[in-house]
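Project standup — Tuesday

K.O.: blocked on the structure for the chain from last sprint. Re-posting the sequence here as requested.
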Amino acid sequence: MNRMIKADLRRIMKKVSFYIWYGVNFLFILLFCGVSEYPDQTMQLQYMTCGAILPLLVSIPVFLAVYGDEMKCGAMQCIIGRGISRRKVVLAKFLDCLLLETFYFVMIEIVMYVRNILFDIGYTPTQNITIAVFLFFIYIRIAGYLAFASFFVYLSWSTAPGVVALLTFAVIAKLALQGAQALAHIPIYNYTFDGLLDAGFAAVSAGSPAFQVVGALAFIAAALALTVLVFRKKEIEF
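H.V.: unblocked you, prediction finished:
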């Protein structure tokens, strides 16, 4: 599995598109992440802009980099034909996603910190830590979206349903569930993956343990387990 991951990363790092998306994220954080007159207002702007845009700006290029070529050239069939178990394939591809996402977020965390100094935002050390924690919660959120979307890749043997799933999870589903909760006055959203992460960050901001993160990670584990189950039953033409 280690060789598979290394081979994937070498292939992806040769792509110009990967670095273009990397630059897009760099410019977004540097130029469009929100600046206001007061630090508290700036923090809220950064919450809104990063929370709304980063899941799409990071998840889509990572997803396409990992799964796009595999579907086009039949590389995954070759890997399975060499005797690699389907469980290892699913886990290796997800680890690819996590490594690439980490590559993005190391840059995002650094650029955000330097940007806030250059723009003289005036954050206290505690506020800088809070922003870093907020970005880490976005990291977990994107990891979940990638795990959920991978299910549709293995189910349909196409990346298109996975991209649709990413857009749905990142934008449509969250707004729809929040609206349903507001109308029905039933905590529907609170117990979803996004709802647990929102509650977890709120707990951290209030100085309490974020036990809700355990539930969010359980969602990711369940999605990967279901993906492995579906992929094992998938008939593949070699």
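K.O.: great, moving the ticket to review. The chain has one domain: 2-233. The chain has a mean pLDDT of 88.
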